[in-house]
Inverse folding.
């Protein structure tokens, strides 16, 4: 994790490889909207329906995240998925395949919003690729209720770091530590995402997965709200060099982390 932030510029095209959007596919879209609306103050407006019912979460009139409804017969893990910017989704998808990843959906057009694909890295972690047109991605960051950081939780970082560096052109900056396997991915000298190798601490029922951190004003208060709204606390709040952090799950089990900026 890092304290580095870049204010979102809603009308600026992001450099390839920049995390530009997060999306959640759930079984009960209405109930999921209610949970996150109460928790983060989000409102919702319809988005492209290529993959079924889909809405965009809006904060202060600006789009910050997406939510879709899984078909009833799809028993996929319920999880937040980060999307990384691309100037050419088709070419990026080809590179994913060449580097040992899998492209599960697309590339396909999402109406006039842009072109997308959903892929997984060689460790099985799912991520999206987004070539923005009318919709360039998250239009607000740096305030409570917005995505703050994306982190891959995986068995070990070395091999998967090479995959992401090749696909998106990242520079890797490992944490030099005998007992902490962490690599920060940089674009143009700026940290944009992290890879955390947890070894046998990786949940067997989930495998490698991306985790989204959302900024909150008060982590402890937000934890209480999560449980009141039917979610659960996965890891209680603790202080870190980057602020107070905790991990929670929504009522359907989608895990995400909270971060309260240090005062």
């Amino acid at each position: 994790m890092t304290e580095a932030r870049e204010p979102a510029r809603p009308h600026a095209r992001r450099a390839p490889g920049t995390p530009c959007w997060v999306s959640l596919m759930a079984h009960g879209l209405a109930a999921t909207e209610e949970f996150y609306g109460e928790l983060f103050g989000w409102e919702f407006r319809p988005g492209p329906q290529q993959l079924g019912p889909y809405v965009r979460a809006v904060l202060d009139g600006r789009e910050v995240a997406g939510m879709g409804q899984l078909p009833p017969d799809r028993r996929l893990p319920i999880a937040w998925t980060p999307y990384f910017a691309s100037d050419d989704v088709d070419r990026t998808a080809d590179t994913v395949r060449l580097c040992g990843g899998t492209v599960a959906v697309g590339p396909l057009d999402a109406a006039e919003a842009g072109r997308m694909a959903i892929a997984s890295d060689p460790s099985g972690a799912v991520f999206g690729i987004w070539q923005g047109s009318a919709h360039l991605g998250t239009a607000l960051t740096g305030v409570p209720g917005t995505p703050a950081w994306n982190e891959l939780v995986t068995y070990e970082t070395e091999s998967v770091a090479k995959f992401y560096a090749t696909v998106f052109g990242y520079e890797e900056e490992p944490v030099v530590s005998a007992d902490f396997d962490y690599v920060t991915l940089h674009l143009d000298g700026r940290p944009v995402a992290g890879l955390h190798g947890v070894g046998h601490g990786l949940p067997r029922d989930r495998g490698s997965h991306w985790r989204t951190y959302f900024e909150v004003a008060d982590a402890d208060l937000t934890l209480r709200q999560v449980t009141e709204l039917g979610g659960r606390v996965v890891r209680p709040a603790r202080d870190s060099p980057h602020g107070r952090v905790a991990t929670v799950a929504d009522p359907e089990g989608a895990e995400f982390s909270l971060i309260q900026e240090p005062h």
Summary: The chain has four helices and 16 strands. The domain at 19-132 is CATH 3.10.180.10 (2,3-Dihydroxybiphenyl 1,2-Dioxygenase; domain 1).
